Amino acid sequence: MLSSLTLRRRFSDLSEQEVLALAISSEEDDARIYRSYAERLRDSYGATAMVFDGMAAEEDDHRRRLIDLHRQRFGEVIPLLRREHVAGFYARRPVWLVENLSLDTIRAEAEAMEKQAEAFYLRAAAGTTDAGTRKLLGDLAAAEAGHTAKAASLSADHIDPESEDQENRAAKRQFILTWVQPGLAGLMDGSVSTLAPIFATAFATQDTWTTFLVGSAASVGAGISMGFTEAAHDDGVLSGRGSPWKRGVASGVMTTLGGMGHALPYLIPDFWTATSVAIVVVFVELWAIAWIQNRFMETPFLRAALQVVLGGALVFAAGVLIGGG
Description:
The protein is mainly alpha-helical and 325 residues long. Helices cover 77% and strands 1% of the residues. The protein is built from eleven helices and two strands; from the N terminus they run αβααβαααααααα.
């Protein structure tokens, strides 16, 4: 690691030819990234994919202009110089991570790419006293600023209000399928299924520490089980539900949180105080579930509340009866 850092060149030590070579390789990389974005989005977000196709073509045009400039000033041989060779140069997210990025994240990433490049060239131009280098860096900064304006222009050409609305609805649907649905299932399972063992233990032993241990074990165990089940039973390719590990994390974490919510009050030493707090927490959890169903799943609130509260009440009663018996 240290050796790779010491081999990096400082930007201030680069010649004008090397700065030009760095700009050429950066344009090549950005065009490749934009094409990867376009391919990732083409099936679901066709209009936005066309925008990234246009931005990749713009990067290609800038690369050709830079190569022509290099040929005029320095000849045919372009030095091999890339971002990772220069200390402090802005980095790009690895292309393979695009598979795990949402539509909004990809759009924001593209905007950040252009702003990073523009800001870097402006800072570099301000730090040099060589007129030729200063002009070159200023031209590069202007080119990057032009990319941002071109992106807005391409968006206006390809994304009309109807297309944008359709893409936003598709992105919302994907968010619900990947995060909300498995997370909600986990929260319901964690909140409701752990009621019986936690309150049965509480009323059977009236020992808050034992109840906390049983509740923690039930919550964590249920979270691991739900997480692995969600991730393993559907890879998301045919169903379109998104990355299995994302769904597994959402389901597992929310299951654990749902159970731990009414296990944690039993850290309070007094049994009846802990139980009273746990009952209040259960009430809040069940109403939160009903709100999420209404907000994201468009389930009528009263129906969602009736289903969740009634189910939770039955499981709670079963736990109390079993533990109290």
